[in-house]
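Researcher: Next sequence.
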Amino acid sequence: MFRTFFLGLAFSASVVGPLVQAAERPLDTAAIKTITGLKGTYNETEKVFKVSKPRTDIKLNVDRWSLPPFMGITSWAAFTPAHGATMLMGDTVLLEDEVNPAMSAALDAGLEVTALHNHFFFDQPKVFFMHIGGMGETRRLASGVKAVYDRVEQIRAGQPGPVVNFPGDITTPSSITAGPIQDVFGTKVDSKDGMAKVVIGRTAKMHGMTVGNEMGINTWAAFAGSDEQAVVDGDFAMREAELQTVLKTMRGEGINIVAIHQHMTFENPRILFLHYWGKGKAVDLAKAVKKALVAQQSVK
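Model: Next structure:
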């Protein structure tokens, strides 16, 4: 979304020149408050309107200490005028069973999900932070934020405490048949103790040197369990422009996202990594991951 918008902006700038420099229209803060149902604060210096939603419903202990929402468990979304539209950035506090439904709500609403990680150690229950972004019309962005927060409330209304596992079982010991998985990916699959793993490398530049698969620039998928009751976990290596496409495809196939972050600094192109976990029939899981790989390759 950001990339497409700014490519369009660059073209417009080449045509209209100084018109791009025109003063930004003020934010419709009333619409943001009405749509999100949240109060907000406006920073005149930065031209930013921010709404927040403390997670007062979470009784969080960190390092054997009861953590107040003020100490970092408040979801927020900030809006600012940008090139004739509105830019959104935010951070959303989520329990484990809220992450993937909230992510799907954000993606379905046209928002971008840009990071997913933890902020604490020894936290009970475990809390994750999902960063969101977007560029476009103010009301649409505010509606996206509202959809994310509403989805969290729906989950907690049906299940006051977080669940402790994803649906589905994993057979033990493992007895994965590697052949069908190899057929799906069309590349060599390594097998060990009834498990199967495929690794697909790519390259980047770091410190003037080309680095690739063996240095960690790779996408991989590992399968365990049985052919009928399997689990897949792995990592996707993506350029920034590919992240949203991979996310949408994986979530559309029912694969759970468990982390989005970087592994390196000063690499070119910048590579992001997405860790995932899925359960189901082994060949169906392989097809889901393969579908995301194909979608990734279609991004220019």
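Model: The longest strand covers residues 85-95. The first helix runs from residue 2 to 16.
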